[in-house]
Amino acid sequence: MDDWQARLEELVSKLRERDYRITPQRLAILKILAVSDNHPSVEQVYEQIRREFPTTSLATVYKTIATLKEMGEVLELGFADCASRYDGKRPKPHTHLICVKCRTILDPDVKNLESVPLHVAQQAGFRLVSHRFDIYGLCPRCQSEE
Amino acid sequence: MDDWQARLEELVSKLRERDYRITPQRLAILKILAVSDNHPSVEQVYEQIRREFPTTSLATVYKTIATLKEMGEVLELGFADCASRYDGKRPKPHTHLICVKCRTILDPDVKNLESVPLHVAQQAGFRLVSHRFDIYGLCPRCQSEE
DNA sequence: TTTTCTGCAAATGCTTTGCATGGGA
DNA sequence: TCCCATGCAAAGCATTTGCAGAAAA
Fold this sequence. Notes:
By secondary structure, chain A is α+β, with helices and mostly antiparallel strands. Chain A has helices at 4-17, 24-35, 42-52, 58-70, 115-123, 140-144; strands at 75-77, 85-87, 96-99, 105-106, 127-138.
């Protein structure tokens, strides 16, 4: 169902193509990104990787994610008030449903919006680069805890 | 056409309602927010206000905007890689068209999306709080400078 | 062997906070 | 007069950078 192994190999070969070296730390970071569907932060990736490689530094996690971001293989969700979250499974723009309390991030199914960004951009003479559609709310669990 | 004076008075009376004091600095910040349609950053508000009140501090600008944000009278657009931008004219969520190069922010006309956030939120059992729809591209000017 | 990567620590950029003084109401 | 707001400087947090030593290829 969840073909994270294929995604991991895809990431590895894309790095090789560009002559990046496959270090154990990088491989572990790629795996975490290919497996996680909770859109982890750098800190969360760091905590996970430390269980396998206790000497890994935060800077290495930042650098690896920056490389993947630049290659378009990771989607960054930046926020005004807290750390960015990353999606390495689906690097193309898509709708996110975000709990404002616990910061859970889901990928809901949303249809019939694909054409909107291009249309709006062209209308104003812009060349479309990407887009972002976030829906903020209170998740069921956080509602019941109120 | 552009009724910034009405918006300014609205902001002033909302502050008074909550027993906030109307200082000259606050009034000047409110005016800049009510007039600007370019979604200024704190730094830009600060530069403008310094022309009128040269001793105003950045902290005061931050504090005033934080107050308005909390009151829902200013919309914050946060980014991963640069300072937040603020919209004090239209504090309700709406679509933004953003140039990735010069960081110009426009408010394009987009229809038929109003129902989407509520629908997606309910589908997943979330209580809708707000949403954000950003379209990123290269503006006409930046395209010709490439 | 060559060159890139790692890990540490220091630096950066944006934003918030603490506190003494000043100024609205 | 009484508090709240201001302005300064320091602190805070996420992220980036510089550099010497380690390790891919």
